[in-house]
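Let us practice reading a record.
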Amino acid sequence: MTTVFNNQRLQFLHIPKTGGVWVVTALRAAGIAKKRRGHEHATFDRAEIEDLTLDGSLPMRMAVIWARVLRKYHLLGKPRRSFCFVRHPLRWYESYWRYQMDQGNLPWGYENTACYWHPASALNGTMSQDFNEFVSNVISKAPGFFTSLYFAYAKPWVEYVGKTESLVDDLLFVLNAEKISCDQTAIQNCRKANAARTRKPEWNKMLMEQLILLELPSFLHFGYFSEEECRQRELAGTFSLHNGLISKAELTSES
């Protein structure tokens, strides 16, 4: 369910496996998270629909008509500002695999159904005890999955995009930028959540390079390629980072 703040102006969009459980826990510890509504991992568009339909209690057609009436008489409130976190693409696949190994390969929702929707359901059926076989299965079934996942949350107009690699600092940046007062010490002292027990896997170099090519937009758009890596891969030109990206520091694909 999308986390909404006490002032109702800000919402947190939780991309799976990017530190979101810790973020929600830290916000609760600081006493500034008001409620959670809708699906835990609602994308930007889904969160807007859930807001419009009052979490599904109104039919979509009625909700749209009601929104038009409110807009006509200037009663429709300003849209909430949003933030989310992204993670290094290779580290995301590692984290997903380790989590599934720990949890016994539980399905994340089901494909082609609204009732059991989950943003990562396309990866169902790709798991393997062997990490590189898992990666190969993902490439075969859902090439470029990671990029499509991120772009469903980090829309160009999303105000803040933090990084898992600098989770605490980026969360505090958002709160300070939005002038949300809270117990920042409680956030800084919040313990790590969902730590994986399964060992960190080793990559097959050829599979890694293939995955990097398939997920290239994410590496470029969210600042996970250094200028040197771009030169090595003969990527000419200047690539724009997401406007809301908090940390402009470049991280290599091995970080």
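A brief commentary: Residues 249-255 have pLDDT under 50 and may be disordered.
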